[in-house]
């Protein structure tokens, strides 16, 4: 019996050490990522009005460990070219312009906004009808309530996944400029259109994050756990870009 207790105690101690080690490593990685982002921001400064525009692409920027305050990214051009070609079918100026126009004028919201409204109303669908979208939607809502302390009422006014399209438009414009598919002037024009549209659609950054998360869950049929920590940083940390700038283009300050 004593041997059993000793073995059990050793196992518990090892598990605790592993958990502590993982938490410590996670914090160290996050700290190093923030330091690297700050160094890039200092080397590539932008005026506040342009940082405000880039705030609408902050979800995907942070997901890729890039700074949401500047145009450059940490990834080398060849790897970025592969990302655009593989995931976006963008390999030249014409395809970049076509994809950006689609994101800004139609995007996934044209197909999935009605599904979101139906799911919010309690309608049920078979997997044959909507794939895993309903399961992912329910999982996303539960995850945001559990990990970000959102209340059910936080989802009430959201009837679109537009942030999923606008956030990605900002980043596709950014990447397309870096690779020379569009000019810097064109990139800022696309980014500003995304920002203006988002400013019209949403009343708060929380709404914007929820819309983005539901877009990822429904259109991409993806688990949102890997974007929750970015959402937590953007919404809760005092020095985050979302807590510096308003969701509305007309002013600054957190919303």
TrEMBL record:
Q: Where is the DUF1266 domain?
A: 84-244
Q: Where are the transmembrane segments?
A: 6-25
Q: Which UniProt keywords are listed?
A: Membrane, Transmembrane, Transmembrane helix
The protein depicted here goes by the name: Membrane protein
> What organism does the record attribute this protein to?
Sporosarcina limicola
């Amino acid at each position: 019996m004593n041997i059993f207790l000793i073995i059990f105690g050793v196992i518990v101690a090892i598990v605790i050490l592993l958990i502590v080690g993982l938490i410590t490593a996670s914090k160290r990685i996050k700290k190093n990522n923030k330091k690297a982002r700050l160094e890039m921001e200092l080397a590539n400064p932008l005026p506040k009005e342009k940082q405000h525009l880039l705030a609408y692409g902050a979800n995907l920027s942070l997901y890729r460990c890039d700074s949401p305050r500047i145009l450059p990214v940490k990834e080398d051009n060849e790897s970025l070219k592969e990302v655009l070609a593989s995931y976006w079918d963008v390999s030249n100026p014409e395809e970049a312009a076509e994809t950006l126009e689609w994101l800004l004028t139609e995007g996934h919201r044209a197909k999935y906004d009605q599904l979101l409204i139906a799911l919010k109303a309690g309608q049920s669908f078979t997997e044959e009808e909507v794939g895993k979208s309903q399961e992912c939607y329910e999982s996303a809502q539960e995850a945001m309530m559990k990990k970000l302390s959102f209340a059910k009422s936080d989802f009430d006014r959201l009837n679109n996944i537009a942030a999923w399209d606008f956030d990605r438009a900002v980043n596709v414009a950014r990447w397309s400029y870096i690779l020379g598919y569009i000019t810097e002037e064109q990139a800022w024009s696309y980014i500003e259109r995304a920002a203006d549209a988002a400013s019209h659609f949403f009343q708060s950054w929380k709404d914007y994050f929820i819309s983005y998360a539901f877009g990822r869950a429904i259109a991409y049929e993806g688990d949102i756990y890997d974007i929750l920590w970015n959402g937590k940083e953007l919404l809760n940390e005092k020095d985050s870009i979302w807590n510096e700038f308003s969701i509305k283009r007309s002013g600054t300050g957190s919303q």
